[in-house]
Design a protein that fits this description.
about 325 residues; alpha/beta; TIM Barrel; 10-stranded parallel beta sheet; globular; binds iron/sulfur cluster
Length: about 325
């Protein structure tokens, strides 16, 4: 155990990391990264929207909230064969996980059978399965785990202090309870947040401290950069300094050494050089595929070329950190 593998993190320690000269922060993140992962490999997930738009929640960054006029076309729950086909394509492109996103406050009990069948289809195609579907009611997490769901995604979005500025229809406490429910059912947790919502560095520090100090650190930590969507309350939000994204990734790598840190939404707006810097800061997971739920993502060929130019490869099999296993 080293200084950077501390079991609990005080926000002041994470703040100190953020304040380091960038080369020093990158150096420390790279040291931690090498101890836990092959730094030349990147894990790939593909994201598919299984139910789009008309969401009852008010997340101010989201194109799928029914409260904002974003011009998004709604779509009900897609069929199981469409998920299977998405899993096949994802596997052929080199992804090892299919993430299914449903724009819901939470699944209805009557949808659970379909979700279970989707999970089984993904597993039959040889991929890890992940579902993002909001808050789970009593008993639902157990059913999904029983069907073979490997990961459930539920992001914290931001710090507890800034959260009210971003979402009001579900509380931070409910989010933390949701994470507990996922863990208790024996699934791995995918949980991260968004940089560039208008939050301060102190909020980014606080969010990372919350994530790092969970009873078990999330096995996957997506770091998203806000894509301001026309029609949402955040459409005119000023872009965050790209180096702040790099710092957030590096600090996440240091405080959650065994977690996959995913450079998630916002990559399409990044230069190749900025993405390379994020990968050098300890990001080791990407979304592969031209669409994220409702926003663009770099083309798969462009991602392959970028990784090739960087001398990096896609991780062929998921790597497990024993300390984070359910
Ligand atoms: S982020 Fe999820 S819960 Fe929030 S509005 Fe969008 S789809 Fe709904």
């Amino acid at each position: 155990m080293t200084e950077t593998d501390a079991l609990s993190w005080d926000p002041s320690q994470i703040h100190t990391l953020f304040e380091l000269p960038l080369p020093e922060l990158l150096f420390r993140a790279q040291e931690v990264h090498r101890r836990h992962f092959n730094p030349g490999q990147v894990q790939a997930c593909t994201l598919v929207s299984i139910k789009t738009g008309a969401c009852a929640e008010d997340c101010t960054y989201c194109s799928q909230s029914a409260r904002y006029d974003t011009g998004l076309e709604r779509e009900g729950l897609i069929d199981i064969e469409a998920v299977r086909e998405a899993a096949r394509r994802a596997r052929a492109s080199g992804a090892t996980r299919l993430c299914m996103g449903a724009a819901w406050r939470g699944p209805r009990d009557r949808d659970l059978g379909t979700l279970e069948a989707m999970i089984r289809a993904v597993k039959e195609e040889g991929l890890e399965s992940c579902l993002s579907a909001g808050l789970l009611a009593e008993g639902q997490a157990e059913r999904l785990a029983e069907a073979g769901l490997d990961y459930f995604n539920h992001n914290l979005d931001t710090s507890a202090s800034y959260y009210d500025q971003v979402v009001t229809t579900r509380s931070y406490e409910q989010r933390l309870e949701a994470l507990e429910r996922i863990r208790a059912a024996g699934m791995r947790v995918c949980c991260g947040g968004i940089v560039g919502l208008g939050e301060s560095r102190a909020d980014r520090v606080e969010m990372l401290a919350t994530l790092a100090n969970l009873p078990v650190q999330p096995q996957s930590v997506p770091v998203n950069r806000l894509i301001p969507i026309p029609g949402t309350p955040l459409e005119e939000t000023e872009a965050v300094d790209p180096f702040e994204v790099v710092r957030t990734i590096a600090a996440a790598r240091i405080v959650m050494p065994g977690s996959y840190v995913r450079l998630a939404a916002g990559r399409e707006q990044m230069s190749d050089e900025l993405q390379a810097l994020c990968l050098s800061a300890g990001a080791n997971s990407l979304f592969l595929g031209e669409r994220l739920l409702t926003t663009g993502n770099p083309e798969t060929d462009a991602d392959r070329q970028l990784l090739h130019r960087l001398g990096m490869t896609l991780e062929p099999h998921p790597h497990r950190c024993a300390e984070l296993e359910p």
